[in-house]
Fold these 2 entries.
Entry 1:
Amino acid sequence: MLANRRLLSITKSIIINRSSIIHSSNNFNKWNNSNNSFNFSTTASIQSSNASLNVSPAPQGILHYLTHADLSKQQIYNLITLAIQHKYNVKYLDTKSGQPLLGKTLAIMFSKRSTRTRVATETAVTYLGGQPMFLGSQDIQLGVNESLLDTSKVVSSMVDGMMARVGSHSEIVTLAKYSTVPVINALSDKYHPTQILADLMTMHEIFGPQPKDDSSYVAHLTHPQETLPGLKVAWVGDGNNILHSMLVTFPKIGVHLSVATPKGYSPAEDVVKIAKHEAAKTNTEISFTHDPKVAVNNADVIVTDTWVSMGQESEKAKRLKDFEGYQITSSLAKEGGAKKNWKFLHCLPRKQEEVSDEVFYSPISHVFQEAENRKWTILAVLDALLVKKSFD
């Protein structure tokens, strides 16, 4: 009898508690539905049809590296000279960094595959004494099951810097907007700034004073402003993020740029507008054509890139057809009238339809020097953002 009373008491308690939980949950749902500021989305794009989100951007004054359109000529030069000095110090003098980033972490969040950028970044962070934390597409929900806003606020609260390789450029902008730590653009569909720094550093090494042998280095003895202005670069390829980064960078420092893209593959109009504005201030020549031979005329450097980027695989057959005649060859350069001692650059990975073996593996090709310089330029960006906290 006593046991039955206890069982009845326990049953009533469970029913009462369950009723309280349901009542509380219903009250929360009613409150939540009546308060639009708490309608957060967990998708890649923030949905806020009824009211704006009650989320403030990060405080102003945090330094980010998203595009050279944001930097001055002098700031770009500062990054190049810093990269050159690091290369000399580390590779030729075996100078230690003093580990200024000891105890600090850089989150490396890549939604796309990477070889040069990842290796360059991880080794650069390690040299500075920091901890690189690689987060690939299988490791982190970068705008997949969690919004970019949420990812930015969460990750930036735990690390000292973020480097992200994303899809749309708006994604890196969103990460930076809500991040409480510096954000570095490792590649977006619109810009690839660290690659262009490596290109400029390589061009400085090529056209500046030359060392006596491979065991010495002299690039640090001459400022890039003495070697880069006046050079002519010919771009033969797609109107992609590499070209966009060239367009917002080269005119600022007086590097002439001639562009050849197939019809339908021209660079974005807003980027071209920036380039023309900067070119007018520095008296730099920017030209556009659909004829590769016209573009390479009188060129010091000829540059190309992949015709089929990641995410464009379904367009491969069409693109290969559209880019017929755009392969970089010795005959193209000769017939177009490139300078006798012209040089070749490519950001890699390379496919044979883009450039012949004859050019790619020849002495005029500096692609592997260019690839190595990704490390030194990324090291310079990290040093500026996380150690010096200034591009000036």
Note: Strands lie at 105-110, 131-135, 161-165, 183-187, 232-236, 256-260, 286-289, 301-304, 343-346.
Entry 2:
Amino acid sequence: MGVATKTMYRIANAKTAFRNKNSTLATLLFYSPQARSISSQSELVKPKRMVEKENKKVTRVLFCGPHFPDSYNFTRDYLQPYPFIQADVAHLRDVPEVIKNYHICVTMLMQMDSYVISRASNMKLLMQFGVGLDGVDIDAATKHGIKVARIPSEGNGNAISCSEMAIYLMLGLLKKQNEMQMAVQSRLLGQPTGGTLLGKTVFILGYGNIGIELAKRLKPFGSRVIATKRSWPASIMDSDSNLVDEKGSHKDIYTFASKADIVVVCLRLSKETAEIVDNKFISSMKKGALLVNIARGGLVNYESAYQSLESGHLGGLGTDVAWSEPFDPNDPILKFKNVIMTPHVAGVTEYSYRSMAKVVGDVALQFHEGLPLTGIELVN
């Protein structure tokens, strides 16, 4: 081997080592628990023209809208070692115009109606960064040959994160969070007098993955847990029988509401469950009972909730979701001191978002290579 050949060989090896080092570093940074959130740097990225990189076809992933920025940031972070996968984010108003250029779409709660879907001429997969698909016209997607999928809440931290938010909202209402802040501002001590989860009966309306994680966390507080589910598989009955003190089906929701000190809404939104927490339901609750919603705003009838707060029948409302989002900060329901609202962040934790970003990234890689899609639940 000549001197020139040896020199070229060493340079090639050095380049390979550098690429491998970068790839390993990117992976370590992505999974590091100390990895810095880059949401503060998030910008709306204008979609670029499709380009060919390294003579490979580019698979393009579109995130819809500027909200939930770390869903895009963490996915882009994960995909940095793979230049043949291009992830973009578009403003909601621009999605109908640019969606035709993409193969995979991450909806981010955008209303994907038949008009938008009909313009997705190259789309093969439409998925949610999480569980809810209530804004997706699944029939229209099926008609246009587009698969629709969600990311199951178990195994990626989403259900755990949401259950923790339910605990946070319950404690915030029981301890009278808003009144405590007013007391601090007024330099008052020893007030207000709050409540405790000890001895409280908590009704989990919709005992799915989030409900199970919530029940696990309520037991150490000394709460009594009751729950309803349309059907109780034997596996749940066996493995989690010690978590729920009383089980019921959908027909029992009003009876269970009358027994509860706190109702936590954990249902998926559908035609059957829309505004299931209405005047009849809230009237069935004990006077002074608390209502917590970590699922979807459309599960609770706004007027019924407002009127029950105004009359004093409802003891408090803690909700991570709203009837229209982003919610109007001047809405009159926020005037009540026993209302706590958070900006749809129950599942938005670094652990869950990096886990789900990995799912989206892996699906894009599988799609690019023509492999079966794993880690997601197809619904059509």
Note: Residues 22 and 138 are 40 Å apart (CA to CA).
